[in-house]
Amino acid sequence: VMTRLVDQLKPANQFRLVLPVFFQQGKLFCGCSFPCNSKKQQYTVVVLINPGNFQYKLVQFLHCVRQAAQGGESEVVDGFHMAEQLRREDPEAFNILSSLRVDFTDSGADYCDFSVQSKNHIIDVDSEGRVTRINYNNATRDSVLDMPVHQVQPFYSSLKAFVELLSRPENVFTYRMEPGDLVTFDNWRLLHGRKSYLSRGQNSRHLEGAYLDWDEVMSRFRILRKAVRGDS
């Protein structure tokens, strides 16, 4: 029986503020198979390699409604762990990716017209040098580099070193979602993708997703902790 995320996402509904998205009507988005005239990567059947998110401070939910008959395995990488590994193995590359800002852009027309722009480090760190966010998405990273020409080659070399870390088999966790499965993760930390798959008729792959803001999540966490522990 096909069920929708709006019926299954009880944890997210408890937060009340499931966020709307501009690429799907309402508060849910669909990762379905639309290989022709697709505006977004998740609507295609080709391999989707570890996209991050550059737009929101979000917790993401993904619910499997229907899995492809062949392929479509999910792949995830711990971006924070990879950043720390890069810091150890190639400190110069880490410093470049955490100091140079690059442009990200995403525009088109799905549920509505949209044109999203952002300028970020690939690796964000706080005042004490701790990694706080990964901004990596080749599909939305702008082809124009707004930086001095002498920094271009070092940037690409540093990005290549980081991508090679992300792609090492020992750093990638692969799993297959089955109908009814629901996963949730920190969209600023976990880089997520999937393998290519075959989509035929009733065997087309169908995932639905939703986003929550971390502020809302932590608010609910504090309320539940108070209820359980009796904290003042």
TrEMBL record:
<dbReference type="Pfam" id="PF02668">
    <property type="entry name" value="TauD"/>
</dbReference>
<protein>
    <submittedName>
        <fullName>Gamma-butyrobetaine hydroxylase 1</fullName>
    </submittedName>
</protein>
<dbReference type="InterPro" id="IPR042098">
    <property type="entry name" value="TauD-like_sf"/>
</dbReference>
<dbReference type="InterPro" id="IPR003819">
    <property type="entry name" value="TauD/TfdA-like"/>
</dbReference>
<feature type="domain" description="TauD/TfdA-like">
    <location>
        <begin position="58"/>
        <end position="211"/>
    </location>
</feature>
<dbReference type="InterPro" id="IPR050411">
    <property type="entry name" value="AlphaKG_dependent_hydroxylases"/>
</dbReference>
<dbReference type="GO" id="GO:0045329">
    <property type="term" value="P:carnitine biosynthetic process"/>
</dbReference>
<dbReference type="GO" id="GO:0005739">
    <property type="term" value="C:mitochondrion"/>
</dbReference>
<keyword id="KW-0560">Oxidoreductase</keyword>
<dbReference type="GO" id="GO:0008336">
    <property type="term" value="F:gamma-butyrobetaine dioxygenase activity"/>
</dbReference>
